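quick q for whoever's on today - can somebody do inverse folding on this one?? i tried earlier but teh output was garbage lol. tokens:
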């Protein structure tokens, strides 16, 4: 679990695990952007919250149960286009690097402030 996101990142419950076949079945029908499925439809099908649907989708993706599953403003869909998948990978990498940059900056700020290097207010 992530600190501050206990509910969203808690391990899947038995009921949530039981919803995986429903999610998988619906997602396997979503070939191409034109057939994308929104999170709210998946919530209605399963009775899960948006965050828990995303947690289930993460498991389906990382386990390989639903291959080539991308997300866009149109919803979740299975891509059959290598260039589209490469672009999605690049987008994920950019987000990953941006999060890393913020984490490293916060670590530096904490060390500076609480480990002897901090002098006064951050903003005057």
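ok took a stab at it. sequence:
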């Amino acid at each position: 679990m992530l600190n501050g996101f206990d509910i969203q990142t808690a391990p899947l419950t038995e009921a949530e695990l039981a919803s995986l076949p429903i999610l998988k079945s619906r997602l396997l029908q979503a070939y191409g952007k034109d057939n994308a499925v929104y999170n709210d439809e998946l919530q209605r099908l399963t009775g899960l919250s948006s965050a828990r649907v995303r947690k289930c989708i993460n498991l389906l993706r990382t386990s390989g149960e639903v291959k080539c599953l991308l997300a866009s403003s149109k919803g979740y869909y299975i891509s059959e286009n290598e260039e589209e998948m490469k672009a999605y990978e690049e987008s994920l990498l950019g987000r990953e690097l941006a999060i890393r940059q913020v984490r490293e900056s916060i670590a530096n700020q904490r060390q500076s402030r609480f480990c002897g290097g901090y002098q006064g207010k951050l903003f005057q």
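fwiw The chain is about 60% helix and 5% strand. also The CA atoms of residues 69 and 78 lie 4 Å apart. so keep that in mind when u check it
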